[in-house]
Design goal:
This protein is an alpha/beta fold. 25% of the residues lie in helices and 22% in strands. Strand 10 and strand 11 form a beta hairpin. The radius of gyration is 30 Å and the shape is globular.
Length: 659
């Protein structure tokens, strides 16, 4: 047995005291680690504070070196920001806005200091004091994706990091937009400016009801311990940029809008000031169904005079994106700028093409071209300066996504991306994009710079080609047609594609679908207003209109085959290169479309649909049927006169099918 510092060894090793091992050196009687210098912090809180340094999330933009920004102290800048946010959250029936303070309520500041702001306004109060005036509302302002990940995973059930690094979230009971619950305030101005009545997406509400819903949303947001505030921009054209503020209750919504809007630089954020438009997203809280104009627990309300949008009763993030798009459809045409629901890309020589098309027409596939720069995939403006993307990100469908079919989207799903309503393996967190258990409308939201060939900034010169895509399941439209200006307007207003048989129970044959301006759900003014702007810009810039059918050839869906994607790509390439303009053309019957007689890489016999049908009578009957559907759809626009003499309206009508 070992005694007095001696140790016994079973293997017979020598007995005796162990030698001392020198691991540290002493200076002035204090031990020091030989490997690294000691941390400067004296407490754990100080150590944690050293871990972080200040920064602001940005979108890559070019800033003039000579730009001069207002010189304010950090304390003054913070105070002004909080005053602006308090003003946004102010009730209309109380003397002051909420007491707001920056930062997460769960985190302690090093010195316990707070920057607090009240907002005083001149509205006559009917209620002097409320509980919300006695508490602090913490403002989480323009957080980075990493910070928003932490907030979502900590506090929002259903938020997970997937194996690829994206944030998977759930949008609650609503997994898509609620167009029947969208309302627009009808006042003395919008009554005459907006499109109302049959065919219009605008359902009216009065100012009083809007204010009731606004108060409900603001009260809900002010009752929370913390709210997320995003100050960002719309439109990459700096001359026509719009400042937007989004106030929301979920980190998921804040990250979604961080991706979808244009992210300001630190300098731009310092001088952001008062927003041009504000969204109050209180989607977790329902509207009052006993309120006038309400038909469900969901309400999405736009007030163009107040420049505000209210969301109640739906957590689907797409409502914010498309709500802002509707606003741009109102604000931009008033500046003679055309707002467009389209894809847009640019060749290496600066030739720009616009792609219009409803779901299933191939808009995303055809506008994504590795030989061309992507300006944007969904929302654009065409001004006197050229074309510009409205957004700072992409919102892509994920259902049945694969690396082989959509490599750009697949690779963009990484850290910072929001994955909505997807299903994933509970252990590996690998996403199953084929699983529709939650919804078929699974989506990914990511910054546009995640696309390798994205053009930053997202602007380009005036378009040379305007391509209207249709998936004609009736099989009677040509693969490509060159359009006159009047024909371009007619087909732009029509916004045609077809649903194929089998998409819904009981459908036996193709169903024609028309969506004015290829985005009827989002336009605010009459479709002819946008069509007239399109024609004016195309005429001034010498752009050419094209109708490209990506649907069926040789018969309708079920009895023939779809036009090969390889042929459609050859057509698009010929449009981009300008070679298709030099082809010989002939005119089709009924629709009066100009079609090429030959095109390199595409069989000549399919260029005229009649050649591909075995039964010529059935072809003619189907052609007349589709023409009748076009004519019937256009009846709602026929009586709307453009200009004082209505001559342009007559030209557009004459450009439709003639039989």
């Amino acid at each position: 047995m070992a005694t007095n510092g001696d140790f016994s060894f079973a293997n017979g090793a020598p007995k005796g005291p162990l030698k001392k091992i020198q691991t540290q050196r002493k200076e002035n009687g204090i031990c020091h680690d030989d490997i690294a210098s000691p941390v400067k912090a004296k407490t754990l809180d100080e150590l944690h504070s050293l871990q972080k340094k200040r920064s602001t999330p940005t979108t890559p933009v070019k800033v003039d070196n000579g730009a001069i920004f207002a010189q304010l102290s950090e304390e003054e800048r913070q105070k002004l920001q909080l005053q602006s946010i308090s003003a946004s959250l102010a009730s209309l029936v109380r003397e002051t806005g909420p007491r707001v303070v920056k930062g997460d309520p769960a985190q302690k500041t090093a010195d316990g200091a707070r920057t607090v702001s009240h907002h005083h306004h001149v509205a006559t109060p009917t209620i002097g004091v409320s509980d919300s005036a006695l508490k602090f509302t913490h403002i989480l302002y323009n957080l980075s994706p990493a910070e928003l990940y932490e907030q979502a995973i900590k506090y929002e059930k259903g938020s997970f990091i997937t194996s690829g690094g994206a944030l998977a979230t759930l949008s609650g009971a609503k997994t898509g937009r609620s167009p029947r619950d969208k309302r627009v305030v009808k006042d003395e101005t919008t009554e005459h400016e907006l499109w109302w009545g049959k065919g219009s997406p605008n359902i009216e509400m009065d100012e009083h009801t809007f204010l009731v819903n606004r108060e409900r949303a603001v009260d809900y947001l002010n009752s929370l311990d913390k709210v997320f505030v995003n100050d960002q921009f719309l439109n990459w054209d700096p001359e026509h940029r719009i400042k937007v503020r989004i106030v929301s209750a979920r980190a998921y919504h804040s990250l979604f809008m961080h991706n979808m809007c244009i992210r300001p630089t630190p300098e731009e954020l310092e001088n952001f000031g008062t927003p041009d438009f504000t969204i109050y997203n209180a989607g977790q809280f329902p509207c009052n169904r006993y309120t006038h104009y309400m038909t469900s627990s969901t309400s999405i309300d736009l007030n163009l005079k107040r420049r505000e949008m209210i969301i109640l009763g739906t957590q689907y993030a797409g409502e914010m994106k498309k709500g802002l798009f509707s606003i741009m459809h109102y604000l931009m045409p008033k500046r003679q700028i055309l707002s467009l629901h389209s894809g847009c890309n640019m060749g290496k020589d600066g030739d720009v093409a616009l792609f219009f098309g409803l779901s299933g027409t191939g808009k995303t596939t055809l506008s994504t071209d590795h030989n061309r720069y992507l300006i944007g995939d969904d929302e654009h403006c065409w001004s006197g300066n050229g074309v510009s993307n409205i957004e700072g990100g992409c919102y892509a469908k994920c259902i049945d996504l694969s690396r082989e079919k959509e490599p750009d989207i697949w690779n963009a799903i990484k850290f910072g991306t929001v994955l909505e309503n997807v299903v994933f393996d509970e252990h590996t967190r690998e996403v199953d994009y084929w699983d529709k258990s939650v919804t078929e409308n699974t989506r990914a939201s990511y910054p546009i710079e995640y696309i390798p060939n994205a053009k930053i900034p997202c602007v380009g010169p005036h378009p040379k080609n305007v391509i209207l895509l249709a998936c004609d399941a009736f099989g009677v439209l040509p693969p490509v047609s060159k359009l006159s200006l009047a024909q371009t307007m007619y087909h732009f207003i029509s916004g045609y594609t077809a649903l194929v048989a089998g998409t819904e129970e009981g459908i036996k044959e193709p169903q024609a679908t028309f969506s004015a301006c290829f985005g009827a759900a989002f336009i605010m003014m009459h479709p002819t207003k946008y069509a007239a702007l399109l024609a004016e810009k195309m005429q001034k810039q010498g752009a050419t209109g094209w109708l490209v059918n990506t649907g069926w050839s040789g018969g309708r869906y079920g009895s023939a085959s779809r036009i090969k994607l390889a042929y459609t790509r050859k057509i698009i390439d010929a449009i981009h290169s300008g070679s298709l303009l030099k082809a010989n053309y002939m005119t089709t019957e009924v629709f009066g479309l100009q079609i090429p007689t030959e095109l390199e890489g595409v069989p000549s016999e399919i260029l005229d649909p009649v050649n591909t049908w075995g039964d010529k009578k059935e072809y003619k009957d189907t052609l007349l049927k589709l023409a009748g559907l076009f004519r019937k759809n256009f009846e709602v626009f026929a009586n709307y006169k453009i200009g004082t003499d209505g001559k342009l309206t007559e030209e557009i009508l004459a450009a439709g099918p003639n039989f």
